[in-house]
Amino acid sequence: MKFKIILLLFFASFINSIYSQSIFSALHIDSDLELRKNILVSEITTEITFFNQNNIERKKEITSLNSKNKIITELRYDSEDNLKERLTRIHDSTGTKSISRKIERWHPIVGYSSETAFYEYDEKGFLIKVIDKNQNNKIIRETTIINNEKGNPIELKLKTDSNVDFGIEIAEYDYLNNSVITKVFDKNGKIISTNNGKIDYSKKEENDIINEYGDVIKSEDYEYEFKYDKKGNWTTQVRYKIIGGKRIKNAEFRRKLKYRK
To answer: What ranges do the domains of the chain cover?
Structure first.
């Protein structure tokens, strides 16, 4: 019984921390989906297969979009077609900027849980605060964000209901090379993690090979194969990782798209 209680507490803590804010999540909060611009889609069903070293993992996602091709809901299923997560977003009057996000999860041990995030913006439309509440409407996290003149987050500070000082996260941008480095400092100013990422994932690298649709078919570490529908959106994407000069099948994505009339 003691072990079961510890296990339940572990999973509850894990779920509670999964959706905590970061500079990367703030930077890409309303990023565009991989769709052709000005072609409106109402729903996407994506079947995902990951080819891991020791096993094959399958998932499915059903995503509903608004009239701006932004996510309204996303249903996430496991390999047995069991609903595991539901994401719901509410946007402002323009339909492009998120003002809240709700995550619901169904776990075989913990059961049902949910979190809702509320986004606050300044007069320039830059994200400056995120308030997370649990399913009992209790505030469990408050994230404050400082942005640069471009509206990109350069400092993030997290406060939880436990009043633990987590330190801060900062970002340094290299716009010429489309890259950002984030560093997390503890309360004593010591660096505890460093991460590299892209500012804009839609931008291509200098040595990428692009096909006639504008998609990357070969990068430094990966190769891709695509199939497209009549509107130019891909319906199949196969990803290969290049290891020792050989192509190793890494993942496969199959999409069914419903278009707005």
So the answer is: 23-203, 209-260
